[in-house]
Amino acid sequence: MMIQLFIKIFGTLLTPAAIKFYHTLKNPEVTQRNLQIELFQCLVKTEYGKYLGIESLDNWRHIPIVEYQDIETWITKQRESQKSLLTPEKVIFYEKTSGTRSAAKLIPYTQSLRRSFNHMFCVWAHDLIVNGPKFSTGKIYFCISPQFQEPTKNTILTLEDDSEYLDGWLRVVLSPFLISPPGIQCARDADEFKHKLSQALLVAENLEIISIWSPSFLKVILDHIKSHHQQLAFELQSEISAERYKLLLETPVYSQLWRQLKLISCWDSANAADSAQMLQKLFPGVLVQGKGLLATEAPMTIPLIGARGCVPMLDEVFFEFEDEKGEIHLVHELQQGTVYEIIISQKGGLYRYRMKDRVHVTHFYKATPCLEFIGRTQEISDLVGEKLHSEFVRQVLDNLPLAETSFKTFIPTNFPKARYILLLDTANTDTNELAEKLDALLQQSPQYRHARLLGQLAPAEIIVNSRAAEILSLYKTREGKKWGDLKHDILSTAPVNKELLSELR
């Protein structure tokens, strides 16, 4: 009863932030205009603003639309000089992105930017308390992403779990409810990390919320528990109930291990959709809720139960949207059913920054468009001129009998000859027949067919490996990327090397 009372009080504390946000959804044009003025006033006070020579808000569109490499020199100078060149506000740290599709980036964080994430969390938590499952224990696991590499004196701060995006007061309030395995950040390798996390989650019998990034991350942990269930039972016998011990000795049913689990928050759109659906099957009755569009650079959209979708963070991020003709639109100008690429300006010193994320306007909530993430731009693989696009590959895979498959990704390789390989975690069809059908469907692309007929590309191949997602993730962590938030694209654009290919086989 005390915990339920605390949750109710916590929801009441969050109500002002939620009311403020819901008010913005009624008039997105005014909200965005006010934020644009605020951001412009910050810009003109900076060295970057003076360099651009922008003096009037009417000249906003004279500010260049940039990608990271366009302002990398400014960020580097700002970090080395410790002067605020892109923002008049003090930079409190630089967050290293996971760099799953390109080289890692260093994103400056100000207190205002951190508060943007904090505000998003408050609105999300309020919505769940008011409209979501009835929580009774409040126990939550926030994703932890070790990097398994030796720290150096030049290491840039990386946020280790979701809670570190929050202000100090919120972390203090939430700390008694967090599942935090002791010493897990000192794990020497992935096996030790998985084992320690498995132990902590199994001890937390009253776990109600799991907040992760990639759904395949949780599947890896569940697979570890399944493979080591008897060992874990013996190790934890003194810390768990007799009933739980008996469940673990047998092949565990996950939904029985965490009977109070009510929410799994994870990516559930684009390439993560299949894995999210897999989690829903493993935990029937649990709300598997998509995170919306959230990046190191900014919180962009937030899922709301009443909205039946994700709405943009109108009062924290200024949005511009580029359509397929290259024309720029504001939030209130968006059309239902249209696809746009997102350009943001936020409170950490990024102005008119191209995110390379594409969204689809599904419907409207109040007066605000709901946005669904549908993929990244420039997802093209080109080994010999075939120019395969991720959308085409997705259509091909949709026409294959892969209903029971929860992980699939298409990778190029040059070993022993240029070809494409479809990685699956499971398959119920003969792989040779599946590979023949895959190659035939790919030849619907004239460029791919041309390359096959000329012998530039070998036939497509299928590799089935239940650990495919884990092996790919561990490979990327060796490059310094964060395991828990890695994205596995439907189409990888970088050819895999011989060593990784051998491990996958």
Give a verbal description of the structure.
The chain is α/β, with parallel strands linked by helices and 505 residues long. The chain has 3 domains: 2-99 and 309-376, no CATH class; 114-147 and 157-290; 380-504. It has helices at residues 2-26, 28-43, 47-52, 68-81, 111-131, 168-174, 190-203, 215-227, 229-235, 242-249, 254-257, 273-282, 390-398, 431-442, 446-453, 468-477, 498-504, and strands at residues 91-96, 106-110, 140-142, 209-211, 263-266, 287-290, 301-304, 309-312, 318-322, 328-329, 339-345, 353-365, 368-376, 380-381, 388-389, 408-413, 419-424, 461-464. The strands form 6 sheets. A 5-stranded antiparallel β-sheet has the order 10-9-11-12-13. It has a 4-stranded parallel β-sheet with strand order 3-4-5-6, with helices on one face. Strands 16-17-18 form a 3-stranded mixed β-sheet, with helices on both faces. Strand 11 and strand 12 (353-365) form a beta hairpin. Helix 9 (229-235) packs antiparallel against helix 10. Residues 149-159 have low confidence and may be disordered.
